[in-house]
From TrEMBL:
Its main location: membrane. This is Protein DETOXIFICATION. Keywords: Membrane, Transmembrane, Transmembrane helix. It comes from Dorcoceras hygrometricum. It holds the Pfam family MatE. The keyword Transcription does not apply. GO terms for biological process: xenobiotic detoxification by transmembrane export across the plasma membrane. PANTHER family: MULTIDRUG RESISTANCE PROTEIN. It comes from the Eukaryota. GO terms for cellular component: membrane. It is a multi-pass membrane protein.
């Protein structure tokens, strides 16, 4: 009877259902933490992204030339600047997230100020692009009327450039501390106000493009000022202790990390821009450009959802590495990638099921609808990859791998994807399908490499790197380092006592 009893006790000790329950509980707890960050991040991204859509909707009723001018400024100029500023803000995402994990809250305010200095100087350096928009567009053989009107509009929205420069540092500061719901509410309120401002300035007062520019400037600065007030008015007593000259220290290292972050993100944005330009170089490109533009717009909207998971995993990874919890960081990656992939499968299935229906929502032209439907399978595959790829980028931001990922982007996109697309599209006469297939191949290669990069990562080493990074950027000792030193001292004293007893 004893062997049976022993077998039962052993089975109880290693009870598979109990292990499953524990794993399920861990996944549930991690998912709750992840969604607390992802949900408001999604709302914020969609709300801020929609400011431009509202402007386009009102400007579209003024005239075709006005609509084209604003579209050029938003999609080319502001898209480039927006990507640069968002990318530079990712440096703050890495450092603030790891500082929160290490409970080094007093350095967060210093990091925020350093980031603002870097982004404001960058905005100043980028301002000539706004000033010389018209001659730049004419240089690229764009329509003269559109170029001149776009140049005027670009001058009127220069205040937005400096709003972007402050928005992302404050956004990442709040995000690293999981204080995002307030930011989401601010963005939603401003979005509603933005609609009202456009109605006043553009429709009622008839101010045209100037009215649209004024409305957008006011809206973006309201977002920024609301965030600044929230941060500096006592809601963050530990992480915001006032302005400090320490912000001007270690600026060179901060600039390097900021540029690597911006480079990583901009390589993504430029890739899709170049794909649209390549389609525009085809013979009789009008139908093809309309079709791929519809698909890209749908892709961007689904990407807004994925960016919430990008924000969540960057916070989770940076927090856990900063707290020296490498296993927890790895587990967060698994849960977040799995969750995002599930939503990617849902979006992919929806596109495949409606590939003959959704094009009619955007166009009445039968040729455009037909060409867009043909691209449905390519769009579905791209959306599926985009449910994984941005999450892996979030892991890279949280761990501080921006430069490595930027180099991977160069190889996969510009040395492989675009040449393959050009070969298929132009040489082999596959047209827009060939160009998109090349883009898709580049995305797939990058996703595979990033997955391997994450799987092969030594998370214990990454935690050590996070500690070293915080030491090099910080203005005070790390709590975890002090704790370790204290434990070593106690252990050393204990050993001395034992020696004396002997």
């Amino acid at each position: 009877m004893e062997p049976i009893s022993l077998e039962i006790e052993t089975w109880k000790e290693f009870d598979p259902p109990d292990d499953v329950r524990k794993m399920g509980s861990r996944i549930w707890d991690e998912s709750k933490v992840m969604w607390e960050i992802a949900a408001p991040a999604i709302i914020t991204s969609v709300a801020q992204f929609s400011l431009g859509f509202v402007t386009i909707a009102f400007v579209g009723h003024i005239g075709e030339v006005e609509l084209a001018a604003v579209s050029v400024v938003q999609n080319v100029l502001e898209g480039f600047v927006f990507g640069m500023m968002l990318g530079m803000g990712s440096a703050l995402e890495t450092l603030c997230g790891q500082a929160v994990g290490a409970e080094q809250y007093d350095t967060l305010g210093i990091y925020l100020q350093r980031s603002c200095i870097v982004t404001l100087v960058s905005a100043l350096l980028l301002s000539p692009l706004y000033i010389f928009t018209s001659p730049i567009l004419k240089l690229f053989q764009q329509d003269k009327k559109i170029s001149e009107l776009a140049g005027k509009y670009a001058l009127w929205v220069i205040p937005q450039l400096f709003a972007y420069a402050l928005n992302f540092p404050f956004q990442k500061f709040l995000q690293a501390q999981s204080k995002i719901w307030v930011m989401s509410i601010m963005s939603l309120v401003v979005l509603v106000l933005h609609v009202f401002l456009n109605w006043i300035f553009v429709t009622k007062l008839g101010m045209g493009l100037l009215g649209a520019a004024v409305a957008e400037n006011i809206s973006w600065w309201l977002v920024v000022l609301a965030q600044i007030v929230y941060v500096v008015c006592g809601f963050f007593p530990e992480s915001w202790t006032g302005f400090s000259f320490s912000a001007f220290k270690s600026l060179f290292s901060f600039v390097k990390l900021s540029l690597a972050s911006a480079f990583m993100l901009c390589l993504e944005l430029w890739y899709y821009t170049l794909v649209i330009l390549m389609v525009g170089w085809l013979k009789n490109p009008e139908i093809a450009v309309d079709a791929i533009s519809i698909c890209m717009n749908l892709e961007i909207w689904t990407l807004m959802f994925t960016l919430g998971f990008n924000a969540a995993i960057s916070v989770r990874v940076s927090n856990e590495l900063g707290a020296n919890h490498p296993k927890a960081a790895k587990f967060s990656v698994i849960v977040c990638v799995a969750t995002s992939t599930v939503f990617g499968c849902i979006f992919t299935a929806a596109i495949l099921a409606t590939k003959n229906v959704y094009p009619s929502m955007f166009s009445d032209n039968k040729e455009v609808i037909g060409e867009t439907s043909k691209l449905g399978h390519f769009l579905a595959a791209t959306i599926f990859l985009n449910s994984i790829q941005p999450v892996l980028h979030g892991v890279a931001i949280g761990a501080g791998w921006q430069l490595s990922v930027a180099l991977i982007n160069v190889g996969c996109y510009y040395l492989f994807g675009l040449p393959l697309g050009a070969l298929l599209g132009y040489k082999l006469k596959q047209g827009v399908k060939g160009i998109w297939l090349g883009m898709l191949a580049g995305c797939l290669l990058q996703t595979i490499i990033l997955i391997l990069y994450v799987l092969r990562a030594n998370w214990n080493r990454e935690a050590s790197k996070a500690e070293a990074r915080l030491k090099s950027y910080s203005v005070s000792s790390l709590p975890q380092a002090e704790k370790a030193q204290g434990e070593m001292l106690v252990e050393h004293r204990s050993e001395l006592k034992n020696l004396h007893r002997v």
